[in-house]
Amino acid sequence: YVIEIPTTSSGYDFSYCDVPFYQMVFRDIVPLSSQSVNLAVDERKEVLRCVESGLTPTFTVIYDYETTYANVGYPSLYGASFEGVKENAVKISKELAPVLAKVKGATLSKHTVIEPGVRVSEFSNGVKIAVNENKTAATVMGKTVEAMNYTVWEG
């Protein structure tokens, strides 16, 4: 099991878009999971990137944050309090479970950038997932993909 798989590029000037390279190469070899959704700068985008490449979402949690870490000076762990994360982690896991079940065992065979912020992933079992990270709806293959959302086509 490989955790903390990057879902974005390095951001250097020579790359104009993010390609899910790890997911395309290793998805059928070993189970993969995302970077911590609850510690991401934009949690919804991280969720969309999980959907886009079939990654299991990861959550970083600290059970007793208030007594153990609150006064130690680790602001990056602020979003890891178990009580603060629990409800949202369950919600996200329930949202993604049916989608991830559709691509379980399939390889990520094609990844297409339709326009900036809108991408389509095609899996070896025929399932296609369009992801829209933009603030407005987009039309992909004749269907509307709402802003900050995704649409799944069965294979």
How are the SSEs ordered, and which strands pair?
Elements: E1 2-5, H1 21-26, E2 32-36, H2 43-53, E3 56-58, H3 65-68, H4 82-103, E4 108-115, E5 118-123, E6 128-132, E7 138-140, E8 143-145, E9 149-153
Q: Any overview of this molecule?
A:
The chain has helices at about 20-25, 45-55, 65-70, 80-105; strands at about 1-5, 30-35, 55-60, 110-115, 120-125, 130, 140, 145, 150-155. It has about 160 residues and is α/β, with parallel strands linked by helices. A 4-stranded antiparallel β-sheet has the order 4-5-6-9. The chain has a 3-stranded parallel β-sheet with strand order 1-2-3. It has a two-stranded antiparallel sheet with strand order 7-8. The longest helix has 22 residues, at about 80-105. The chain is globular. The model has no long low-confidence stretch (mean pLDDT about 80).
- Please summarize the sheet with the most strands: 4 strands, antiparallel
Strand content: 25-35%
Query: Based on DSSP secondary structure assignment, what is the total number of beta strands?
Result: 9
Q: What spatial order of strands do you see in the largest sheet?
A: 4-5-6-9
Class by SSE composition: alpha/beta
